[in-house]
Amino acid sequence: MFGSVVSRWTMLHFWAAFGLFALAQAAMALGFAYPDVPLFAPTTLAVVHLLTIGWITVLMLGALHQFLPVITAQRIVAGRSALISLVAILGGLCGMEAGFLAMGGVLPMACLICLPVGGTLVLVGLVTASGVLARILWRTRPLPFSARFVAVGLVFLLVTAAMGIVMGLVFAYPDLVPWPEALSTGFHLHLLAGLVGWFTLTAIGVSYRLLSMFTLAPEERGGIGTAVFVLSAGGTAAAWLIGLANAAGLAVPGETAALGAAATGVALYFVDMIRLYRARRRRKLELNTSMAVPPLAAFAACLVGVLAIAAGDDAFIGPVAYLFIFGWLSGLGLSQLYKIVPFLTWLQRYGHLLGKQDVPRVQDLVDEHRDRPWFWLYFAAVAFGFLAGLAGWTLVWRLAIATHLAATLMIARALWLARRPQAPTLGRERPMGPRHFGILPYPHGGTVR
Amino acid sequence: MTTAAEVKEALKQVIDPELGYNIVDLGLVYDVDVDCDLVRILLTTTTKGCPATEFIRSGVEDCAAGVAAKVEVTMTWDPPWTPEKMSDMAKEHFGVSTERTSAWR
Question: Which pTM was predicted?
Fold first, then answer.
């Protein structure tokens, strides 16, 4: 049983995701992509997919391989298939990047074929990962509250990838695709499925479980939680299906109403998160739970921004997309990694020593005092970048991106150190006699209690 | 013969790794029953599906084996653990109270 408490390849997912996150931020800061070039330029699309596939999707899949079994109280089943999935996704992403660079004239046009081929390989990887996760969900029926969001999110993940392949084919072989309008009509459905259906619904579900667990808040969300799920998941699914029907020329009404329902569900999620934090029993928040608040605020600001875009102000699209990816999704990911990585480390290195000798606490593997400023720097830089984007100050925006790249690297360093604790107490025999908690020296400023 | 109090004192060497506090004061040890040289321990975790469950169970077995000849550990999640089961000392440590707390502290 001990061998199954940690998903073997989750940390590899995290390190790969971190590397691609840093690469994407560097490309933006150096001016290779938006905001220095147009939002829909090929190099921007290359960076966007580095962020959405390479960073957020890989991060979320790695986390789900570990935490979906926690959410559902099932055994971990992600073995070699998790590695195969990761290799396929990363390999496919490389192909997609080559395709986008060919579109932009950086690589020969012959490389354009890499776009749909790479996308197909990514889809193979996503199907493999989703299959593993779907097995866990299937064994858990009826699904617990937070797992329902994940289930819907996984469906949207595959839908997003499949649509992406069609769009890649249109780019590469426009004459072969019988629906030349697929690119324009499919684009917003691709965005809806990916940004809302996959990322947001999954993040909502996981955040419900993790934040209630780490703050000692009630997991039962009652009627408002049900409303969040029905409206956000149902509204998104309805809007996507109606949009698809309209793209096929069926003229089905109700897309705006469905999107409104989804937005209402998201707004209720904010209300429920405030309830969750207010009802928490762990009064003093740890860094991962206190730093989950800025992403929630960023997400709320995005919702307001989307309403402004819906009202016809296209100038908001770039800054709101930036805030959504860096403030909401990346911010939530970074903050929760600050708990997940030390927890995994503890399970792998100290779990089997519990009760046999002194072991550190999970929080002893990090130094919140040392790392707190980097989180604040990250979120301050994202806020500043968002405001610079609204004002149209491109150079300032790039400086803000460079700043949150530096903060990202420092947070990655903190997690790297958490993976390599040098415990002076390790190897000690079991302490004689009972104790509540003796204070022992421990690296990174912590103590063993 | 070992008493239940001695067993519980021994189990205070086992911590919940995430909360960082011993499992006895957290209220994770639901029952300790001493029957001659056999000690039966009824144990839970803060949440069902906790990945540290088997480590905590094994740690409890090891610690109890230091004060008893035979140990039998049973896991249960019925009733589910709540922060109210903590000792007063643990509640004070975590600031657990029945009052609502600030949302953004």
Answer: 0.90
Q: Which residue from A72, A216, A359 is facing B49, i.e. has the nearest CB? A: A72
**Confidence band (pLDDT; 50, 70, 90) for A176?**
confident
Q: Which residues contact A434 (CB under 8 A, 6 or more apart)?
A: B9, B10, B12, B13
pLDDT at A443 over 50: no
Lowest pLDDT segment from A174-178, A287-291, A404-408: A174-178
- Residue A226's pLDDT is 96
Give the up-direction half-sphere exposure of residue A360: CA atoms within 13 A in the CB hemisphere: 28
B93 near A CB under 8 A: no
Question: Is residue B71, in this structure, part of any structural domain at all?
Answer: yes
Contacts with A356 from chain B: Cβ below 8 Å: 59, 62
Mutate to test the interface with A, among B55, B94, B97, B98 (most CBs of A within 10 A): B55
From the candidates A216, A346, A447, which should be mutated to test the interface with B, based on the most B CB atoms within 10 A?
A: A216
CB-CB neighbors (< 8 A) of B56 in chain A: 354
CA distance to partner chain B, nearest, from residue A180 (Å):
49
Report the first-to-last Cα separation within chain A, whole angstroms: 27
Distance between CA B67 and CA B33 in Å, rounded? 13
* ipTM of this predicted structure: 0.90
CB within 8 A of A398, min separation 6: which ones? A28, A29, A30, A31, A35, A36
Domain with residue B42: its CATH number is 3.30.300.130
Q: Is residue B105 part of a domain?
A: no
pLDDT band at B99 (very low <50, low <70, confident <90, very high): low
| Å between B19 CA and nearest CA of chain A | 8
Is residue B33 domain-resident?
A: yes
Do residue B59 and residue A71 have CB atoms under 8 angstroms apart?
Answer: no
Q: What is the number of alpha carbons within 13 Å of residue A119 lying toward its C-beta? A: 24
Distance from CA of A344 to the nearest CA of B (A): 9
Cα–Cα distance for residue pair A125/A246, rounded to 1 Å: 30
Residue B67 is assigned to a structural domain of this protein: yes
Is residue A421 pLDDT above 80, yes or no?
Answer: no
Q: How many domains does the structure of chain B reveal?
A: 1
Q: Mean pLDDT, to the nearest integer, of B29-34?
A: 95
